[in-house]
Write a structure and sequence with these properties.
There is one protein chain. With 193 residues, the protein is an alpha+beta fold. Helix content is 43%, strand content 18%. A four-stranded antiparallel beta sheet has the order 1-2-3-4. Helix 3 packs antiparallel against helix 4. The longest helix has 23 residues. The radius of gyration is 22 Å and the shape is elongated. The chain starts with a helix and ends in a 5-residue tail after the last helix. 12% of the residues are buried.
Length: 193
């Protein structure tokens, strides 16, 4: 009896938690979804270098100004995209791409590498959830002003941050009732419409 009590005390998940099969998010899938999110939101930023470098062409037209403006805009787009794709290469991003199982309850989401190792996400760390095809994509909230460095570094970090998410495909759930339970939990927490 004491052994069972110790095990329950070590386990942070509620007894009625949703437990999933192991799943590994592919880096290409992450990159595609993250880039789509960034460029849907920040497409207008690519217009800034284009307009700035086309401005001299208004006063003294030359194809060199047009070619330079297109080239600088292309470089900006490539650098911003490389920054988002860099999340897949950084050591801090490795936990996103490991084979994990999930335990989801009304208090938290536990990402488990094995029975002893894992990471906890509380519901207040999740900014929004969207249903993409046959999966849920849980977007994590960006860092707060207090967590960012001060000055221009803080502005740069806030302006050009890469989105981070956890993806839960329907196929990792053990039965359709788990999906319905998760959806009702997301509605109660007002993360999904």
């Amino acid at each position: 009896m004491q052994q069972n009590q110790r095990y329950r005390m070590q386990s942070n998940a509620a007894p009625n938690a949703i437990r999933t099969k192991k799943y590994q998010l592919e880096k290409n899938t992450f990159t595609g979804i993250a880039l789509a999110k960034v460029w849907r939101k920040d497409w207008w930023m690519a217009l800034i270098p284009l307009v700035l470098f086309l401005l001299p062409a208004v006063f003294s037209f030359s194809w060199w100004w047009v070619a330079g403006a297109v080239l600088v805009t292309l470089i900006f787009v490539l650098l911003r995209s490389a920054q988002v794709m860099g999340v897949t290469q950084m050591e801090q991003g490795n936990p996103l791409f490991e084979k994990l199982s999930y335990e989801i309850d009304s208090r938290q989401i536990i990402l488990k590498r094995n029975e002893r190792e894992g990471m906890t996400l509380t519901w207040d760390m999740i900014g929004s959830v969207e249903r993409k095809g046959e999966s849920y994509v849980m977007w994590l909230k960006p860092p707060t002003e207090a967590q960012l460095p001060g000055g221009w570094k803080g502005w740069l970090a806030k302006t050009f941050q890469a989105p981070v998410f956890v993806m839960l495909p329907f196929r990792i759930f053990n039965n359709p009732n788990d999906i319905k339970l998760l959806e009702s939990m997301l509605r109660r927490k007002e993360l999904i419409a």
